[in-house]
């Protein structure tokens, strides 16, 4: 499981995970009302609205060695997950 805090961007902005195992992306918001309250992962055709406060889990499947890039709805706040 990969956890990101969401408010005014994504923290941490860069994470590392093991490739080849089922992976869940856990996104936690706390009073988030900016554009980071909507996440996009274009390579996986994922667009997900997040609640102002709460936790959303996104199933990333079983990623291969790659760099998965995501952003907020406006593309202002990027994040990446490096699967090794």
Report on the architecture of this protein:
It is a single chain. The chain has 84 residues and is mainly β. It contains no helices and nine strands. The strands form two sheets. Strands 3-9-8-5-6 form a five-stranded mixed β-sheet, with no helix packed on it. The radius of gyration is 12 Å and the shape is globular.
Largest sheet, in brief, is: 5 strands, mixed
Strand order of the largest sheet: 3-9-8-5-6
Mean residue pLDDT: 96
Principal-axes geometry comes out as globular
Architecture blueprint of SSEs:
Layout: E1 2-6, E2 10-11, E3 14-17, E4 23-29, E5 38-41, E6 46-49, E7 54-61, E8 66-72, E9 78-83
Parallel strand pairs: 1-4, 3-9
Antiparallel strand pairs: 1-2, 4-7, 5-6, 5-8, 8-9
Features:
84 residues, mainly beta, five-stranded mixed β-sheet, four-stranded mixed β-sheet, 0% helix
Compose a concise summary of this entry.
The protein has 84 residues and is mainly β. 0% of the residues lie in helices and 56% in strands. The protein is globular, with a radius of gyration of 12 Å.
